[in-house]
From TrEMBL:
PROSITE patterns hit by this protein: FAD_PCMH (PS51387)
Domain FAD-binding PCMH-type: 1-176
InterPro entries in the record: CO_DH_flav_C (IPR005107), CO_DH_flav_C_dom_sf (IPR036683), Diverse_Substr_Oxidored (IPR051312), FAD-bd_PCMH (IPR016166), FAD-bd_PCMH-like_sf (IPR036318), FAD-bd_PCMH_sub1 (IPR016167), FAD-bd_PCMH_sub2 (IPR016169), Mopterin_DH_FAD-bd (IPR002346)
Keyword terms: FAD, Flavoprotein, Oxidoreductase
Cleavable signal peptide: none
Organism the protein comes from: Nocardioides koreensis
Transmembrane portions of the chain: none
Top-level lineage group: Bacteria
Pfam families on file: CO_deh_flav_C, FAD_binding_5
Protein name per the record: Xanthine dehydrogenase family protein subunit M
Amino acid sequence: MKPAPFAYLRPGSLPEALAALAGEPDAKVLAGGQSLVPLLSMRLAAPSLLVDINGIPGLADIDADASGVRLGALARHADVLASAEARRVQPLLAMALANVAHATIRNRGTTVGSIVHADAAAEMPVVLTLLGGSVEVASVRGTRTIHADDLYVGPLESSLAHDEVAVSAHFPALPAGAGVAFEEIARRHGDYALCGVAALVDGDTVRAGYLSVNDVPTVVDLTGVPISETGAAALEQLEPADDIHATAAYRAQLVRVLTERVVRAAHDMVSTSST
Ligand code: FAD
């Protein structure tokens, strides 16, 4: 199918983009287009105006320091995956990004775009939520920071207002002596996962984040649970559902198996880093 007609604007500055969004309630931001363009073509989205942010300078930065990794709105998945500094400061980014789609999609798709697209089957919203990250957004009213816990309000729905642009996302650094791990099962490598799990072990605290299980990115606390029981304990806090890709029973089994694997792997990372 072809998209419904829309107007197109490629502003050269952020204020120009924000003014255009504020003046048109049905406008949408276009970043990498890897989710939005298919939605347009299937007529599941029909914005009156596309505000293409790709001409705005200074939005593609990847900055890693002791506090964490900050990604600009135009940092492509592929560039984040290739950044040795980002990998060193927060290894969970690369672990998860290696599973995001295929190389051609990662070359164009942006990590911030994926985060605000709020797909419960996507890897990076779960990573941001598990790590306690945040998104910096701008509008004609000014800027604000949205913590990941306040970002996801429903399936494919974030708490950004229609005229806000996410200018960057911040992922906290891996604390010294902490460990992370990520695993997912997909029919083919690069497909959306049937179930994916990320784990963070930091001191006594053990948490795991889930994609393609609930209808929003979901994190559960597994502190104090023996590793061999983490899968069952996680399942008590989740609601795997049937869809055309997998049954609820199969998803529940994936939750059990993957949770134990990633919690064990994150513990192993802690042991390796302390020897
Ligand atoms: P766009 O498509 O440009 O935009 C997506 C949505 O976010 C739109 O509503 C847009 O208005 C909004 N938006 C984007 N950027 C901003 C911003 N800075 N501020 C405000 N709103 C913004 N993703 C995965 O996570 N895992 C996968 O396994 C996976 N597989 C894929 C397979 C295929 C075949 C395809 C086509 C895509 C797949 N994707 C997958 C999606 C891909 O990761 C996209 O890149 C990502 O979802 C959106 O990023 P984008 O920059 O392309 O955003």
